[in-house]
Amino acid sequence: MITEEQKQDITELLQLLLKSMGIQARVSPEDNLRGTEFNIYTEDSRLLIGQRGANLQALHFLVNAATYKKFPGIERFYIDIDDYRKQREWHLREIAKKALEQVKTTGKPVKLEAMNPYERRIIHAYLSTEYGIDTESIGSEPNRRIVIRPKLKGEI
After folding, report:
1. How far is the C-alpha of 22 from the C-alpha of 133, rounded, in Å?
2. DSSP three-state, residue 67
3. pLDDT digit string, tens, across residues 79-101
4. Which CATH architecture group holds 4-82?
């Protein structure tokens, strides 16, 4: 787990960045099963999240880079804005369920929409326990996507 000193430092960094952008927000660090999550609560959530989470990704990258420089080897942590990631993860699992049913019904591969690496990891992890199917990422960024396909007879 992240130490209290590290949590305080990350919280202060986030508050400083948000203040410099003119955004009033509350930052709340919470420990959960994945690690430590810093949830930002603000009236400007749409601006901070950006289109399909692009601004949230950029903020996460910036804070991670600064934090890893100060605390080398720090455990992974996450940044969320008004529970956007939690809601997006639920939505991605629903997309995966529907695609999985389509693959099982038709026996044909299904290509999902282009996703960022974080979102693709969620789909791969969610479907990793499914017997008889395989997932792979194809294409190049920013158009990289997942293909869900039935395993070939020799692969099962």
Report:
1. 48
2. helix
3. 999 999 989 999 999 999 999 99
4. 2-Layer Sandwich (3.30)
